[in-house]
Amino acid sequence: MPEEEHPVVASQAPGGATLPRTAMENDAAKEMQRQIKRPPEDDAKGSDAKRPKPPPSPTKWWEDKATTLLIGVRQEQATLYDPKRRSFHCCRGFERDVCEPAVFDHEEESTARIARPLDTIPESKLDQLKLALNVIHVKVLASDVGFPVRVYGTVLMRDGLDFKCIYLFQRDRDNCQVISSPGEMLALTGPNRGPFEATTFYFEINLKIRGEEQIMDRIFCRSLIGQDYPLDQWTKKKEISSWLSTLEFAYRSVHYAVEATVGISILRGPRNFYGSLVACTSEDSNEMVLYDSERWGAVATYAADGSVALTRPLVVLREDEDLVLKVSSFGRGRRAKPRTNVLTVEHCDRLFNITQGRYKLQVTISWSGILW
Q1: Basic and acidic residues bias: where (predicted)?
Q2: Which position has the higher pLDDT, 259 or 297?
Q3: Residues near 162 by Cβ (< 8 Å), separated by ≥ 6?
Q4: What is the C-alpha separation between 156 and 164, in angstroms, rounded?
């Protein structure tokens, strides 16, 4: 059974005389009266007032002060004194809202892709294709130590998709490229996808000259280029002087971008492909070298299926542009005149068979639209 409630009363002495209340009894009586007078609907308010406030929602990590300090530390670690420019420069890109500095690996290669086959994109969505950058070339304009130089290292890009490495050039010390004269291009192997949609696109250059011993290797170029989001379409050539070199970067902003991935197979002819493949577009005549056995001294041997490994297979262009391919084969003599076919490729084109000197070649093109 529930216990009966008893009112709080003052103590009584024998004979019925009331004794004065103690201080404790007075406090108890006041509390009882307060509980009786308080309306029931005030209970919730009273209890809420006594509860501790919930902790504030956690801040976004890129707004956290400790993160800001850590980014500063990592930027300091990536800062070098450039003797050519006589000043300190950070050589790595940082975006605080993309790469959390405590866990982000600046060496990790990007494997993310959003491009989808162009023929699966409805025509009504073609105006939603994204902006991308197309890299045309990287040239060595000058060397402070003369020519030839044996160059190795990396040239890479970062975009807004995952900020990881999109390699344009990547060679180790045992696979140097020999640059024999001013104006020669680096043998680009990338990008492997269209770099797209970044507040700032970053180019990171880390090139060295191979010496007789590894301890004699020297920094050829160590620098960072930032390119803000392009609001219009242009082709830009940018010079960067750093350490022992001057380089030229040529790249183009492409609105409503698509990727063209090019392949070559030898259907008949010698096992080694002595020739070249150069690309441009119907709107931009700047040439991109996809393969050249003479220029870079690397001759590809076709695989079991006849395919030839191109140095660089991918080109980014606008959705309404045509791709222009110049396919050349070299004769038997060292200076024999090359035979060249020029192919104008529309987006509906997938395959060409051409006869070129000693070779019968099959050129394939696969199209992808850069779209979320």
Answers
A1: 27-51
A2: 259
A3: 98, 110, 112
A4: 9
